[in-house]
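Q: May I have one protein plus its fold?
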Amino acid sequence: MKIIGVTGPIASGKSAVTALLKEKGANVIDADIIAREVVEPGRPAWTDIVEYFGESVLRPDQSIDRPELGRIVFGDAKQLSILNEIVHPRVMEEVDSRLRELAGTNSPDAVVVIDVPLLIEVGMNKRCAHTVLVIADEDVRLERLLKKGLSREEAESRVDAQHGKDALAKFADMVIVNNGTLDELKEQTEALWKVIQADSR
């Protein structure tokens, strides 16, 4: 089983790359989806978040109010670090669990893509046959976040929180620059898939 790590800053397009690889036949483990699952009401990460950040981050149905929590952490590096300390270990445990499941049910040449925002920072890239960093200029990423409905202040705080992410390029063996069109992104992803397939032979 070949593990491909895909990472990159917010609004860079890493999820789009992952989706395109899934269309090619790759199995996908999406850490952002897992991060939502591990903070569901009653789970340990949910309890820790409520204990630290207070009940103001809860919706009436007791689920985490993600926009409200985002407003708290993305303007404060310490608060963001604490949230990552609560959530990230639980996410990584679940990623490991799913990798073990896939290893037991897939052929040796199967491709598994893990989409993890902090892939390199937590050292998970060392387990990957290839590490792919998806980047885009800050103004492009900002515009994408604004189109998703964030205020300019919220969008800027999220982009600023991941400032310097491009420096991680030295840890990646492929960098996809996603400043252009979807067709251009597809071309780069197609080239990546050919590299992955060539290695599988």
About this structure: The chain is about 50% helix and 10% strand. Residues 77-105 form the longest helix (29 residues). The chain has a mean pLDDT of 91. The longest strand covers residues 2-7.
